[in-house]
Amino acid sequence: MRRDARVAACIPDPTDPYRTIQIRGRVVAMVEEGGLEHINALAMKYYGQTWDYKSDQVRVIYKILPEHVDGH
To answer: What is the pLDDT of residue 2?
Structure first.
């Protein structure tokens, strides 16, 4: 993403796999600050516990500017 900032995500509807949303855009920021707090918040939300952090892990938050959104 440092070499080519273009990214895309395709997210299926959990109730209907034929229904999706696609988001395309560019990474506008990559920050490590706050990464551990962010993954801990997500882990608490979905797993009810903090992230099992290993000292060799680096948590990065990628901020994406959407340029095209399409749903089917």
So the answer is: 87
